[in-house]
Amino acid sequence: MRTFDLSPLYRTAIGFDRLAQLFDDVQRGDGQTSYPPYNIELVSEDKYRITMAIAGFDRSEIEIETERDQLKITGRKQKDETKRTFLHRGIATRDFEHRFQLADHVKVVGARLDNGLLNIELVREVPEALKPRKIEIGGDNVQLLEREAA
Where is the SHSP domain positioned along the sequence (predicted)? Predict the structure, then answer.
């Protein structure tokens, strides 16, 4: 794996330390497994969906929480007290914890469990003050400045 030196970024940019930390985390790999399998889907311009295959888990065994810019999904399987003999066990029901890094202004707006698929809906809501806006160019100010200079 190739490593990148991000020190030039620290010398010339202010406030990008979070971005550099993300690159460091990706390079190191956080040890997350691919279990359970999941999809990340762009539903529309500012809407996303994470779909996670969690067959065998009940709603009460799943916990979804957000903290700052991170989404954490945890599955804790309750102990099955009945003695069962499997001839083949292909459905994994082991505990898991998955973390997703959320971009600025991305919020979780809902979650549902249907047919063993956990769907988490996300939306990017950029505050009005941060959206681009057009600035009109007026001619009156130019005339005023010319009169003051004369």
Answer: 29-140
